[in-house]
Amino acid sequence: MPDIILKYQAEIWQSIGETFVMVGLSIAFALLVGLPVGTLLYLCRKGQLLENRSIYSGLNIFVNIVRSFPFLLLVVFLIPFTRFIVGTAIGTMAATVPLSIVAIAYYSRLVEQALLEIPRGIIESAVSMGASVLEIIFKFLFVEARSSLVLGLTTSTISFISYSTVMGIVGGGGVGDFAIRYGYQRFETELMIYIIVMMIIFVQAIQFTGTTIAKKLDKK
Amino acid sequence: MVISLQNISKSYQQHQSILQAVHSVSLNIDKGEIHGVIGASGAGKSTLLRLMNVLETPDQGTIVVNNQTLTTLPNRKLREARRSIGMIFQHFNLVSNKTVFDNVAVPLELTGYSKKAKVDRVNECLKFVGLEHKAEQYPAQLSGGQKQRVAIARALANRPAVLLCDEPTSALDPQTTAGILDVLKTVNQEFGVTIVIVSHEMDVVRSICDKVTVMDGGKILETVSIETEPYMIPDNDPKWFLEQLTEKERNSNA
Ligand SMILES: Nc1ncnc2c1ncn2[C@@H]1O[C@H](COP(=O)(O)OP(=O)(O)OP(=O)(O)O)[C@@H](O)[C@H]1O
Ligand SMILES: [Mg+2]
After folding, report:
1. Where is the ABC transmembrane type-1 domain (chain A) (predicted)?
2. Under an 8 A CB cutoff, do A128 and B83 touch?
3. B185: closest CA among B36, B44, B47, B64?
4. I need a labelling partner for B73 at 20 to 30 A (CA). Which of A6, A15, B54, B212 fits?
């Protein structure tokens, strides 16, 4: 183990922990909120089962606005909201608020796209069997789209990691912030490179895991 | 009478104009009948079939199936009613990420079968279509004819009174078509299931139907009773293909 890493061992572990909290909560919100929102986007589209123009437009505009914001501006813009939700605008927990909102918007769009790939005929056969909308979602849509849903979550996770690296501006910490503060600002170039290499390996591992699971799930 | 359409119309908004896909059609289909619907592309055959289980909501008219007026049923009741109306499609529409077994099990799960009863019924249906040995395979591993057999097993799982078929053999070669038609005939004779079959293939309709409705431009031209003629089952011999090809040529040369 290089000396420089041993020297900053405690700080490195802490920053990894912070990244895990920020990215982990983003993934949780992507699944708990983004997945239902994306499904609703899909179902409320023109010609789909729950066709509803106002719900579709509302969700669609939310997703577009969040996704078109430059991320740092979104973080700043959301400060009052963040303060309202977690009581403070500074720290790792505060940083998860804008991250989670981006996560919801980002993943819901990928969910909508994954569901749009399902052949219409499958849904028709489900309706002809007398399935309810919930049954169609769980027994048909999510089953048929499961490998795209996993791939989408993999892509999203990697984006969340990338977004989380700039959360230093609200004291969110994390690996990216550590690399900037210690590696860049204190001229510990070696340390910075180690951190970058670590992140590359980490992202590769996530992509590999996601692709492998998706492949396993895909029987088409 | 197991299916009765009274004065049914269905139109679609297409760009600026309105397209009348089915135009005040009335049609009665008796219990135990195999009823064909034939006509040119765009005649409204599929739309008519999809109206029979209200996959398409009619603009006007009444649809009665199994003594239930589907057009006035509340949503929940309509879903229940659909369980006794099976449907199969040209492109099979199986869930590709479910095994053959699980595909056939879905309608039973929707009806709330117990685990044990479900397993028994799925195996029974797969045996009927001759695919019990494929239970653990996925649709992608099956031929077109096998996929359609799975779709038939799935449609029969809930013991429907009616089976609606939209071009069930149009994606299949002649040999496989003959096999599927045999299965459908058996379904009709053994279980007394009323079958409505939409097709544009004259041979198919002629070989299996008791009555045929001819459609044109969204209207019924006529419904006639026919004598069934056996579907010409070609053997698998490549020579047969050659013979057919050269015979055609000879005829056109003559
Ligand atoms: N969902 C829809 N939206 C708009 N128009 C439709 C829709 N479904 C059918 N149509 C139109 O209604 C007419 C009848 O269609 P239908 O599918 O019933 O014809 P078909 O007789 O089954 O033809 P084919 O042999 O090509 O399957 C066609 O002109 C078609 O374009
Ligand atoms: Mg058709």
Report:
1. 16-208
2. no
3. B36
4. B212
* Whole-number percent of chain A with pLDDT over 90: 88
Strand-strand pairing, B68-69 and B60-65: antiparallel
CA of B41 to the centre of ligand 1 (A): 8
CA of B15 to the centre of ligand 1 (A): 15
d(CA B199, CA B188): 17
- Domains, chain A, in order of start with CATH, read 3-217 (1.10.3720.10)
B6: nearest Cα among B48, B85, B64? B64
| DSSP string for A56-80 | HHHHHHHHHHHHHS-HHHHHHHTHH
Looking at the CA of B166, name the nearest ligand.
Answer: 2
Identify the nearest ligand to the CA of B216 by its number: 1
Which amino acid appears at position B153 of this protein?
A: A
Q: Is B136 on the interface with A (CB under 8 A)?
A: no
Q: What is the 3-state secondary structure (H, E, C) of chain B?
A: CCEEEEEEEEEEEECCEEEEEEEEEEEEECCCCEEEEEECCCCCHHHHHHHHCCCCCCCEEEEEECCEEHHHCCHHHHHHHHCCEEEECCCCCCCCCCCHHHHHHHHHHHHCCCHHHHHHHHHHHHHHCCCHHHCCCCHHHCCHHHHHHHHHHHHHCCCCCEEEEECCCCCCCHHHHHHHHHHHHHHHHHHCCEEEEECCCHHHHHHHCCEEEEEECCEEEEEEECCCCCCCCCCCCHHHHHHHHHHHHHHHHC
The reply to whether residue A139 touches residue B91, judged by beta carbons under 8 angstroms, is no
pLDDT value of position B253: 61
pLDDT above 70 covers what percent of chain B? 96
- Whether B83 and chain A come into contact, CB under 8 Å, resolves to yes
Interchain contact B47–A (C-beta under 8 A): no
* Ligand 2 centroid distance, CA of B110 (Å): 27
Suggest the residue from A125, A136, A142, A147 to mutate for an interface test with chain B (most B CBs closer than 10 A).
Answer: A125
Strand partners, B166: B198
Q: CB of A50 within 8 Å of any CB in chain B?
A: no
Look up the pTM and report it.
0.91
ipTM of the complex: 0.90
Pocket test for ligand 1, best of B10, B15, B19 (most atoms within 8 A of CB): B19
Question: Is the Cβ atom of B12 under 6 angstroms away from ligand 1?
Answer: yes
* C-alpha to C-alpha distance for A168 and A177, rounded to whole angstroms: 5
